[in-house]
Amino acid sequence: MQPLSPAFFARSTLEVAPDLLGTLLIHEQPTGERLVGRVVEVEAYTQDDPAWRSWGIVDAATGLVVPEGRGLDLFGKPGTAYVYLCYGRYWMLNVVTEPEGRAGCVFVRAVEPLAGRDVMWQRRPAARREVDLTNGPGKFSQAFDIDRRFHGRPLTAPPLYFAEDEEKRDWPIATSCRIGLHFGIDWPYRFFVEGHRCVSPGVPSDVAARARCAKRSGVINRRGR
Prior knowledge:
With about 220 residues, the chain is α+β, with helices and mostly antiparallel strands.
């Protein structure tokens, strides 16, 4: 399987994100076995995005980058992994995008398991169905054995890399606002294969925010205030 080149990722994040759908994520194991999954859900994060992990690292007045923190890694070589720990438990996989010197990344939220399922089941003992192996960012990183050791490494060559699917077809792509955010909740930067069984079950942030507002409004009305 031919890995995607750095040039694939050295483009606008909003171009890379939908183009990554339908590609393959491959982790070659020391045993020679391959874990393979088809990417079915991603989110885009851009330098001017209030939900971006390094929001504020670029000085608005001068355009200069504040030289501190891991956020600098998002200005690095396109196609590089940006991996962080969420809630002290789940590893999140991002791939750096944009030409080097401008920040951006695509966050991988879900993949469809294609090969190496036996290994994935061993790493995901809590899963009850095959889709539960990889239908969320923490789930698939656990199934694929992705953690901090891949941070800063290229995702354009083994052992962990993206590759073009030789049987790739035109997937029906849908968009929505991203999931689990408190800032930039109305930015439609989530891309997913519409109707795919392995898309994560999360609720888009704008929908969740409206539900919270409606719930609070209902409580206030019942109290007569």
